[in-house]
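Researcher: I'm preparing a figure for a lab meeting and need a structural model of a single chain. I don't have an experimental structure, so a prediction will have to do for now. The sequence is pasted below. Please return the structure as tokens so I can convert it later.
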Amino acid sequence: MKKTLLNIIALTTSMSILGASCSKNGSLRTAGSRAKEKSFNNTSYFPYKIDEPKDSIIAIGFNQTAYGYYLKLSDRKSVKNLKILQQARKKYELVFIKTDSADTHKIIEVVQAPTELTKLFQKSLLK
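Model: Understood. Here is the structure written out token by token.
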């Protein structure tokens, strides 16, 4: 009976340690691994605020979320991403953003949302 109880406690402890080492999406992370999983957010955004650069970082604000995002100008795609965001803001268009899994506020890629979504968004602004 004591041996069974000790085995249950050991199993429970190891499961909780294993659970603590899992990332948000359920995959295991080993000590020292810094995998950068990238995925587009399923929400389309309108960039209402694009700040001036400070220390090569540009703060970005979107209407659909209270979270603040940013672009690092030292990143390879940041100039292209910034142009897409500025165009979307100017023309009231929606965008999809891809963030870094290690820092979910850092934008690593921006693409324009489909025209149908943008038209629905623009129509909702006129009401």
